[in-house]
Amino acid sequence: MNLSCYSIKEEALRLGFSACGIAPAGPVGDEHRQALKDWLAAGCHADMAYMENYFEKRCDPQLLVEGTRCVISVALNYYPAQKLPEDEYQMAWYAYGKDYHDIMRTKLTALFEYIRENLAPSLEGRVFCDTAPVLERYWAWRAGLGWIGKNTQLIIPHAGSAFFLGELFLNIEADHYDTPQPDRCGNCTRCLQRCPTNALEAPHKLNARRCLSFLTIENKSEIPASIVPRIGNRIYGCDECQKACPWMRFAAPCQTPELQPSPTLLQMKKQDWHALTEEQYRTLFKGSAVKRAKYSGLMRNIKEAGA
Questions:
Q1: Region 254-265: what's the mean pLDDT?
Q2: Alpha-carbon distance 276 to 298, whole Å?
Q3: What are the residue numbers of the active site?
Q4: How far, in Å, CA of 11 to CA of 20, rounded?
Q5: 224-238 tens-digit pLDDT
Q6: Beta partners for 72?
């Protein structure tokens, strides 16, 4: 028995996902494997040492989850309908609403249960959303959702790159598999030119040591003095390489209620950010991915942006 590709995609869209594709499980291609090995060897992952772990499992879903026969990849739109005023401090769009890990996990679990209850009672597998050593953009490409752009983001045709990605690793094959999309970046290098810190050192090569998304979120140390003047008004993450991409002109506002920014966040002024107390921080970002930077990290960023 094989899984019905049509039924799975129909249910994924009903659950609110923006796109869904299915690929046969197997080792990643040699080109992608070598690119990852070279990227790690060059230290482009900065202090994110966890990315060095489980290399073989990252490159083969059947080693990560024994018995995996197919990988279902889904995307959920987070492009905001309302944005922070341009003259105020900026946050990455993905952090406007509630923590995407929780939202994606709930929807992915619902999709998994639908498949087991309606298509395959003997189904076994795992649900992932940035929670395990999975090459998410690779599998989204392999499952036909889009292509990996020069800014290293997964770009969906006529939709852009403002999407969360998630996967189901399942022990049953599908009745049809999607094919990878061709690269449609062409000769465009706007993302490389737009990066405020030159973190995009070459097409498809991001050096996290210079990336504002790493430096203002994952980074627990001081921001390098050479980078501080380039922070501008960004206090959590950076979307410049996305904003520069011509494909983003097709982006449609997300419809997921949990991903919408709160009125309080939209009304924040620079003076409010500088006066933010830890208690106010906890209230404003309850259930938010912003807590990843912690209060101390966010205040460090605010201080540097206001310098």
A1: 96
A2: 10
A3: 130
A4: 10
A5: 999 999 999 999 999
A6: 22, 168
